[in-house]
Design a protein that fits this description.
The protein has helices at about 5-20, 35-55, 85, 155-170, 180-190, 200-215, 240-250, and strands at about 25-30, 35, 60, 65, 75-80, 95-100, 105-110, 115-120, 125-130, 130-135, 145-150, 175, 195-200, 220, 230-235. It has about 250 residues and is of the alpha+beta class. It folds into 2 domains: about 5-135, 2-Layer Sandwich (Fructose-1,6-Bisphosphatase, Chain A, domain 1); about 140-250, D-Maltodextrin-Binding Protein, domain 2 (3-Layer(aba) Sandwich), CATH 3.40.190.
Length: about 250
């Protein structure tokens, strides 16, 4: 098992997405949560390659669920993270592949095909962007920070609005780009300081989780609990502003 194989797979799947630019929307899951032919084709490709090279491994992907049986190794795959951007011709989308061993992410790769940015990490081995080491920023105050806040239609707009208001007043800038995997990589690369999402699935952040922590960042739930790869909220920062961000996110009762 190696980082090169996972990286190669993400790059090939990314190239497949590029060939599908302009792909038809095949399903609307919920509100703006859509699926195109590209999501499905890229996931089928990854599943087939894993089955061919690592037949004993389990695959869990956003579009086709989990393959049968228990396995020590599990590939947690989002074939297209940022589908809404992809469908509008915006380059901010990526392939995300996390390789999990007994519940722990060992290898994480996120590939943004239109800019050819390959983010990769191996547990204990650091994180890289196109082979160059990555590290989080040194900014230590929210006041000087750029913060990404994103949400889905499934979450209460009132709760999200309350958080947005607090961050808007506290941070230097608030952004929203639409790909959780790339957002985590941007924090890992020191391009900005934090990413907050009230509810993600494992495939959205398994790879980005490892890339961020290997670059020196911190990731927890909104409540400040340690983050495994189970679905739920995500607060990801450069580490230095984490306590201050969490204190801003704690809404007073009532
Ligand atoms: P996607 O493009 O793979 O759907 C944007 O809000 C971010 O949240 C994207 O990473 C998007 O991933 C993810 N996302 C959107 N809807 C979601 C949902 N219903 N459950 C989990 N993640 C979602
Ligand atoms: Ca997806």
């Amino acid at each position: 098992m190696n980082r090169e194989f996972v990286s190669g797979l993400a790059v090939e799947a990314g190239n497949l997405l590029v060939r599908h630019l302009g792909a038809r929307i095949v399903r609307v899951k919920f509100g703006t949560d859509i699926v195109t032919e590209a999501d499905e084709a890229a996931e089928r490709f990854i599943r087939e390659e894993v089955r061919r090279h690592y037949p004993g491994h389990r695959v869990t992907g956003e579009e086709y669920g989990s393959s049968e049986g228990e396995a020590e190794w599990e590939w947690v795959v989002d074939p297209l993270d940022g589908t809404v951007n992809f469908a509008r011709g915006n380059s901010y989308f990526a392939v995300s592949i996390g390789l999990v061993h007994r519940g722990e992410v060992r290898i994480g790769v996120v590939y943004r095909p239109l800019t050819r940015e390959l983010f990769a990490a191996e547990r204990g081995g650091g994180a890289t962007l196109n082979g160059e080491p990555l590290s989080v920023s040194q900014v230590d105050r929210v006041e000087e920070s750029i913060v990404i806040l994103d949400w889905t239609r499934r979450h209460s707009r009132h709760d999200t609005f309350a958080l947005t208001e607090r961050l808007f007043f506290a941070a230097s800038k608030v952004r929203s780009f639409g790909s959780a995997a790339l957002d985590l990589c941007s924090v890992a690369a020191g391009q900005l300081e934090a990413f907050i999402h009230p509810g993600l699935s494992a495939w959205d952040f398994a790879a980005g989780h490892l890339i961020l922590t290997e670059a020196g960042g911190t990731i927890t739930t909104l409540a400040g609990e340690p983050r495994s790869i189970e679905a739920g909220s995500v607060v990801a920062t450069n580490g230095k502003i984490h306590p201050e961000v969490l204190s801003l996110l704690t809404l007073p009762p009532g």
